[in-house]
Amino acid sequence: MTYSLTKTLTFDEFIVQYGDDTRYELIDGELRDMEPTGPHEAVAGKLTGRIWAEIFRSNLNWFIPKNCLIKPPAAEATALRPDVIVLDEDQLKMEPLWQREPIITNGRTIKLVVEVISTNWQDDYARKVEEYALLGIGEYWIVDYRGLGGIVFIGKPKQPTFTVCQLNGDEYEQQPYRLGQNIFSPLLPSLSLRLDNII
């Protein structure tokens, strides 16, 4: 991840200049180049497929958009772009920007967000945990397939870790999973998934 601007951007400036460019997101006015790699995109793609299959099998009125930004209402110059986002189609009528832009402002619309860790692991383990909890997003997955996160987040020795964050009140309870372990999602309890399946 690089911080490529010295001048800060507003949310509206970001949308005009980078809204359609999936490489970028905005955090507190700073442009973040997420620098996705092939392996990063492969992990996100495999997860998307497994989540979509479970949504379809469970006959849920949810979908996974190709491109979507989250604008936290309390953050004036932030536009988050999760690697995978699951939306509740019934809630879209409450989204003020959706008809013009793929932008979500209401946490109730979001069933799940997934961040696949790359060099921006600090944002995913700290800042986004706070933002997503403030929005009231019930479940957040952090997929650290290379074991890049800090020891406080993934333990020692550092190793690939899949963390399921479940909202309890206004904070996430975090459950880490390692290679060889069955991952449990309260949102998708019938989903059969191991970290081994996606890396």
UniProtKB/TrEMBL annotation:
Ranges where the Putative restriction endonuclease domain occurs: 12-194
InterPro entries associated with the record: Nuclease_put_TT1808, Restrct_endonuc-II-like, Uma2
A matching Pfam family: Uma2
PANTHER family to which the protein is assigned, alphabetical: SLL0198 PROTEIN-RELATED (PTHR34107), SLL0888 PROTEIN (PTHR34107:SF2)
Protein name as it appears in the record: Putative restriction endonuclease domain-containing protein
Native source organism of the sequence: Aphanothece sacrum FPU1
